[in-house]
Amino acid sequence: MATTVTLKATRRDDTGKGVARKLRAAGKLPAVVYGAEAESWPLTLDNHETQLLFRSISLDNTIIQLEVEGESKPLPALIREIQTHAFRPDILHVDFYVVQTGVELELQVPVRLVGIPTGVKDQGGVLEQVIYELPIRCIPSAIPEVFEVDVTGLEIGDSFHIAELEVPEGVVILREAERTLCTVQAPSLLELDEDDEEEDEEPEVIGAEPDEGEGDEGEGDPSEG
After folding, report:
1. Domain membership flag for residue 210
2. Inside any domain, residue 214
3. Residues 164-203: tens digit of each pLDDT
4. How much is the pTM?
5. DSSP structure string for 110-163
6. Which CATH number characterizes residue 37's domain?
């Protein structure tokens, strides 16, 4: 099931770009939370705490319990959007979406490859991951944390498809079952050609004496003259 974490927040009344700039200058982060049946609340987060939390979780499918000051119970929410600076990794604003118990929603779940394929370890192949996350539909309590793919048994030419995944009950993957998640490919012909050329080149022997007749010009026989 998906990871659940907590994040403290406070409600605010003032909105606008000027307010947001002042909050960021004070080490705070402007945010908003909303939902299908919930009113929109402008929030203020601690910038440092939020940055640390976001670096440690999957941003697409982690349920964040927003502990809003003055509220009797936390709001379970998913991150809907993160606005960042154009030239720096700084977070400027966060949108949260409140999830409802028992109500299906759509989101992305990461795909993680586990192990080293036989085709890579013993046959010199290359593992290529084609899809890194999958869109799904399910209720909040059934959200998978990750789809793990054991690639250990894959040989050169083998692929792993969506249809082969172990999908938890109640989870629907919104992609075609025949889509490829990863594959083990043979080394490219270009790489093989380069290897052959390197093998064909005669290595230079450092310190070897030159062949007769290839000495420096101008050095005649000492007996001459």
Report:
1. no
2. no
3. 999 999 999 999 999 999 999 998 744 555 555 555 555 5
4. 0.74
5. EEEEES--HHHHTT--EEEE--SEEEEEE-GGG--S-EEEE-TT--TT-EEEGG
6. 2.40.240.10
